[in-house]
């Protein structure tokens, strides 16, 4: 059986291809460290910026809260239905910008339904600023770096 051949693309297409994977793969896997043990779980981002900054809602009581506080280095992995992937390596920080928190809150009915108020002490929004973004087309078997300074 011949090896599968990935659909070709140019370097200029990589940012748009990566954004399309993120749009299709709504629930990325978030990797954190629990001491020396990696932990991976699906998360539901509440916002994605054009520069690949990802915002993830979390509850203070969740294990990843403690893990991120101890080591804020994280990685998100998006895998779409065609098996294209985007990996975002970055640092998670607790979002404190009141205007941005309000904007995220107002745009997300699930947050409002389950948490009641943006002042709910259980709510944490993490902003994950990318230090590296990589794209891989199914069967290509190699990641290509996504330029972080390219506008949408």
In short:
The chain has four helices and eight strands.
Describe the structure.
With 152 residues, this protein is α+β, with helices and mostly antiparallel strands. 24% of the residues lie in helices and 36% in strands. It is built from 4 helices and 8 strands. It has helices at residues 14-24, 63-70, 98-107, 109-115; strands at 29-34, 37-42, 45-48, 54-59, 73-79, 85-94, 123-136, 144-145. Strands 1, 2, 3, 4, 5, 6, 7 and 8 form an 8-stranded antiparallel β-sheet that branches. It is globular and about 55 Å long. The mean pLDDT is 93.
Tell me the CATH architecture: Roll
Radius of gyration over C-alpha positions, nearest whole angstrom: 17 Å
Poorly predicted spans = none
Report the average pLDDT across residues: 93
The CATH C-level class name? Mainly Beta
Apparent shape? globular
Structural class: alpha+beta
Q: What name does CATH use for the topology? A: Pnp Oxidase, Chain A
The figure for the number of domains is 1
Query: How many individual β-strands?
Result: 8
Count helical runs: 4
Write the layout of secondary structure elements.
Elements: H1 14-24, E1 29-34, E2 37-42, E3 45-48, E4 54-59, H2 63-70, E5 73-79, E6 85-94, H3 98-107, H4 109-115, E7 123-136, E8 144-145
Search tags:
Pnp Oxidase, Chain A, 152 residues, 8 strands, alpha+beta
């Amino acid at each position: 059986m011949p090896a599968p051949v990935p659909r070709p693309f140019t370097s200029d297409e990589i940012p748009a291809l990566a954004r399309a994977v993120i749009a299709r793969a709504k629930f990325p896997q978030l990797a954190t460290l629990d001491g020396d043990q990696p932990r991976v779980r699906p998360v539901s981002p509440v916002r994605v910026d054009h520069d690949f900054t990802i915002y993830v809602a979390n509850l203070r009581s969740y294990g990843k809260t403690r893990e991120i506080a101890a080591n804020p280095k994280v990685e998100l992995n998006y895998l779409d239905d065609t098996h294209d992937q985007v990996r975002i390596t970055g640092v998670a920080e607790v979002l404190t910008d009141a205007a941005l928190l309000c904007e995220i809150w107002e745009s997300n009915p699930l947050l409002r339904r389950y948490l009641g108020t943006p002042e709910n002490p259980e709510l944490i929004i993490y902003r994950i600023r990318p230090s590296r973004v990589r794209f891989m087309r199914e069967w290509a078997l190699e990641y290509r770096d996504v330029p972080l300074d390219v506008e949408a």
